[in-house]
Amino acid sequence: MLKNHFELFGLPVRFAIDLDMLDQHFRKIQSEVHPDRFVTSTPAERLRSMQLATQANEAYQTLKHATSRARYLLKIRGIDTQEESNTAMPPDFLMLQMEWREAIEEAEDAGDVDALDHLLHQMRQQAKALHEALHVALDEQQDDSAAAEIVRKLSFIDKMRSDIEQTIAKLED
Amino acid sequence: MALLQIAEPGMSAAPHQHKLAVGIDLGTTNSLVATVRSGMSTVLHDEQGHALLPSVVHYLTDEQVEVGYKAQAQQSIDPQNTIVSVKRFMGRGLKDIADVGHLPYHFVDTPGMVQLQTRAGIKSPVEVSAEILKVLKARAEKSLGGELAGAVITVPAYFDDAQRQATKDAARLAGLTVLRLLNEPTAAAVAYGLDNASEGVYVIYDLGGGTFDISILRLSKGVFEVLATNGDSALGGDDFDRRIFCWVLEQTKLPPINDKDTRMLLTKAREAKEWLTDHAEARITSVLSTGDVIDITLDSDTLTGLTQHLVSKTLSPTRKALRDAGLGIEDIKGVVMVGGATRMPQIRQAVAEFFGQAPLTNLDPDKVVALGAAIQANVLAGNRSEEDLLLLDVIPLSLGLETMGGLVEKVIPRNSTLPVARAQDFTTFKDGQTAMSIHVVQGERELVSDCRSLARFELRGIPPMAAGAARIRVTFQVDADGLLSVTAREQTSGVEANIVVKPSYGLSEDEITSMLQASFNSAEIDKQARALREAQVDAQRLLEAIVAALQKDSALLDADELKAIESQMLALAELAQGTDSQAILKAIDTLNHATETFAARRMDASVKQALAGQNLNTLEF
Fold first, then answer.
1. How many helices (H) and strands (E) does chain B have?
2. Looking at this predicted complex, what is its ipTM?
3. Which of A131, B263, B494, B589 could form a disulfide with B76 if both were Cys (CB 3.0 to 4.6 A apart)?
4. A3, A32, A38, A42: which to substitute to probe chain B, counting the most B Cβ within 10 Å?
């Protein structure tokens, strides 16, 4: 029986988790299962070690980031977040998106890294507020469809943040 | 008990005996071997007291091979047969080598990896590297007085799959058991971190003879976690030499010069560069074979100007790595300098300016990688030291698949912690389609043609059905050495094919086998004797591993299960005394299979153990 990612690290199955604890438990698990511990072991143990270490890495990455953690939690509950198919967004969020896109283009054309940094900061703030909302929807109200919509918003913001980071990288090189 | 008797006849290693393990820094310019002795990591010297072995291989007329200082002395006299900086050709095609015109070799453009025409025949860079490794192996075995149990070989963090595989093949060719391929900056961090009991985020700036790596690591309680790595696998101290060499040619307005003069002037350029580390001026004098006389003075300001673009070429990957790690300069606790080229004052100054702090140089930049590799080799071989060391490294370059229009779809992003796996589902796009081809590439660019092609393979035997009905799951697994393997599984209508595909560049298994055979004198050891010896060694390893596991955890098995494993062990131990290598291999397989459940239980028990005693009720956001 494979454990889910939360169980693997001995964490409660919920959105709000102790990230320091996640770090610590990830390291403890890797200390036990990492292939470096099994270099002279049997082939069966080496294979098992690689599989478990791979799973631990995957689980850690999934739980470390809020968006993927929420998406994974919803998946456990049998909810598909429909990030590819469901692109309907509330009008106010659509407006915000458009404003951001314009601001990014403007800053990119002007080569204004500071403006892009400022946009990144705004998006981080927005993401933070959405994390709070996820905590309420997932852990307190068990409102999975509201949570799925927040994940779709966050996924959008994450994408935009990585676009901005790439643009900054291009401008700085 | 019976198990200890099994381990005894002809099986020397008792479970707790100290295993001889070494760390090898296979460098572009120089190579080293180190080991842990009495708890201290030490570089091993040759009989003349040299720690460094110049990575130079000279093929002589009488089929002899010289390696190191002797070979180095030949590089201006016999440049075509004296291979310098072979590391730059490992896992590279001819088109990947930027300065072919400047090099005195006869390249042979072979698919996958370039080869070199020497008087000893056509040599793969893997074979040339193996010559260097053989010398280091012999040095270590002589110095330690026994056969090596295994070696950790270091590679630049920015080496791709092809370059890593080539390095592993070279070690195999040299008769070394590779415990792990370890990234050079990570090895340096181990040596540095353990020496200084450091905690926090450190940058390793590693400029070697031919490669540049930047790694950002978080050090905490014996865990070395690589957060991001970047670099340039075709940038190093050699490029500074070439810059000086070109400057000399420009200044002296000489016509094109021959191979011997090129090699000689490059050596003069390197000497001038090294001289300028502690002096303001270097005089370069030389008489060419044409009779032309060179006498020119290079001052350090001119050198700084000449090589400024090379220095800034190292800062761009540095910025990228910081960005990938999500860190700013203010988060960096220290910058460790690695590689002989970091002795150059203009490099130290540029790094100090970039990070706003003086870099750490208290360990010898030539030795720190080998010292760290030896520490890790000691741990991996099972000579567990007091400190529980754990290295979590990353894949340096993204893995992707070719999609429509020659575009790359990323499957595993760069800087993913190893080991890592991703599964991707494919389907057929034509009715009755029974095969499809998959092309795996490595790199960050969007176009397939701009990335490194790792493997092209055909999936065959797909049961014919309507377009889109087949479901083929392809799994990409990158192991702790950073090496890729691909498994494909067709999982519709009960048909399940399972294949393992190894990357297709470089040397094939057959080529390695024939090189291995050629490297032994056939009069002494024939093919069969060699196969038997290998099977016996494998049998012994497996038996030892199971004995050690049973001693610790036999309680996880019931009496019947234990008996089943023990009888298989006896069977193998008996066969291993005989001469039937096929039978031994079969028994190894059977025994390994018999221990799978035991392995799974042992691993699950350690996972449980890891988190035991944790109070799980106190978790809050």
1. 16, 27
2. 0.88
3. B263
4. A42
Q: Do A42 and B614 touch (CB under 8 A)?
A: no
Spell out the CATH class of A5-64. mainly alpha
Residue B11's pLDDT is: 41
A 10 A CB-CB count for A122 gives: 15
Taken in order B94, B97, B98, B101, the sign of the CA dihedral is: negative
Question: What is the pLDDT, as a whole number, of residue B473?
Answer: 84
pLDDT tens string A32-48: 899 998 998 888 899 99
Measured distance CA(B616)–CA(B460) in Å, rounded: 50
pTM given for the model: 0.87
* CA–CA dist A22, A60 (Å, integer): 8
Sequence letter at residue B124: S
- Considering only A112-116, B6-10, B147-151, B566-570, which range has the smallest mean pLDDT? B6-10
State the nearest Cα–Cα gap between A139 and chain B, in angstroms.
11
Model confidence at B445, in pLDDT bands (50, 70, 90)?
confident
C-beta of residue B226 within 8 angstroms of C-beta of residue B215: yes
Rounded to the nearest 10 degrees, the angle between the axes of helix A91-110 and helix A144-172 is 10
Please give the angle made by the CA atoms of B230, B474 and B403, to the nearest 5 degrees: 65
**CATH of segment(s) A91-172:** 1.20.1280.20
Helix (H), strand (E) at residue B509 = helix B509-518
> How do B56-59 and B223-232 pair as beta strands?
unpaired
CA distance A88 to A95: 13
User: B178-183 and B150-155: which strand pairing?
Assistant: parallel
Where do the domains of chain A lie?
5-64, 91-172
Q: Is B187 on the interface with A (CB under 8 A)?
A: no
